[in-house]
Design a protein that fits this description.
Largest interface: A-B, 47 and 37 residues
Largest sheet of chain A: none
Mean pLDDT of chain B: 80
Structural class of chain A: mainly alpha
CATH class of the largest domain in chain A: Mainly Alpha
Number of helices of chain B: 5
Radius of gyration of chain B: 33 Å
Oligomer: heterodimer
Structural class of chain B: mainly alpha
Strand content of chain B: under 5%
Number of domains of chain A: 2
Strand content of chain A: under 5%
Number of strands of chain A: 0
Helix content of chain A: over 70%
Order of helices and strands of chain A: HHHHHH
Shape of chain A: elongated
CATH architecture of the largest domain in chain A: Up-down Bundle
Helix content of chain B: over 70%
Distance between the termini of chain B: 89 Å
Low-confidence stretches of chain B: 1-9
């Protein structure tokens, strides 16, 4: 009887130990990334095969860009508040509203240009192929988020 | 039934005695008498024995879990089956651990990507 319980429990314990070992081993990279200084950047290193020097450059560019991005955020918030105020005050398209919307569009273009500039700078220290991959990915997530991906077979419009 | 088995045992002992050369039986008896065990019987051992005898006499089958344990004991008396059992649980643990870790890694990777985009795009930055 004792032997039976020993075997049954031994099997379960062996399974649990195997589970814990493989889980801890397979998530070790993820844990080290989470404990790094820039967890939101550290994945770039593994994803785009960056060396320590290349990653340091990318991190430096990122740190330099962050204050600019925060300033742009503040301007966008200010402009959005202005547009909302104007929209709430009237029920017709006034010259002020036209001007505010044009200013919003100009601001967006300015922000997107600065973003694109930062993405190009970030891609330069990367290996060429990886840089291209990075640009394609980051542009699809930021500048072209609503872009439809073309399918191999065109849709049949007659149906 | 008990009488039959007792009579059978007595006949068996008699046959053994007839086969044994004289003198050796006495030596064996002495040896058996000198043997002292310090192990104690499990609690309610006698009661359990009587219950089993009564159940066997009445033709009542043993409870299901008794039969399951008896079957498992019989199965695990074969080393190959013990190794298979432990092996299956070991591989199940490995598979489950790998699958769970993969899911967590994928989730974490997509979270980092989203956080990166939020830090570089002022239009997606959480406010």
């Amino acid at each position: 009887m004792k032997r039976l319980w020993l075997i049954l429990l031994g099997g379960v314990v062996a399974g649990l130990i195997a589970y814990a070992c493989i889980y801890l081993h397979a998530t070790s990279v993820q844990r080290s990334v989470e404990q790094s200084a820039h967890p939101e950047l550290a994945w770039l290193k593994t994803e785009y095969h960056l060396s320590e020097a290349q990653f340091a450059q990318v991190a430096q560019l990122h740190d330099a860009y962050l204050p600019k991005c925060a300033a742009m955020c503040a301007r966008i918030d200010e402009q959005n508040a202005k547009v909302q105020e104007l929209l709430a005050a009237t029920n017709a398209v006034s010259p002020e509203i036209k001007e505010a919307l044009a200013e919003t569009a100009r601001l967006r273009a300015e922000c997107e240009t600065a973003m694109l500039q930062h993405f190009y700078e970030t891609s330069r220290p990367m290996p060429p192929e990886q840089g291209k991959r990075y640009l394609a990915w980051v542009q699809s997530k930021t500048l072209l988020p609503g872009q439809m991906i073309p399918t191999k077979q065109p849709m049949d419009m007659d149906k | 039934m008990l009488q039959t088995s007792a009579a059978g045992s007595a006949a068996g002992i008699r046959r053994m005695k007839e086969n044994d050369p004289a003198g050796k039986d006495e030596g064996l008896s002495k040896l058996l008498h000198s043997c002292k065990t310090e192990a104690s019987l499990p609690p309610r051992f006698q009661e359990a024995v009587w219950q089993r005898i009564e159940r066997a006499d009445a033709g009542v089958p043993a409870p299901l879990w008794h039969r399951v344990i008896a079957r498992l004991e019989a199965a695990f008396s074969r080393p190959a089956l013990v190794v298979s059992y432990v092996g299956v649980l070991l591989f199940t643990g490995l598979g489950a651990g790998y699958w769970h870790a993969e899911g967590k890694n994928t989730h974490a990777a997509s979270e980092w990507r989203a956080r990166y985009v939020q830090t570089v795009d002022p239009y997606q930055m959480p406010r």
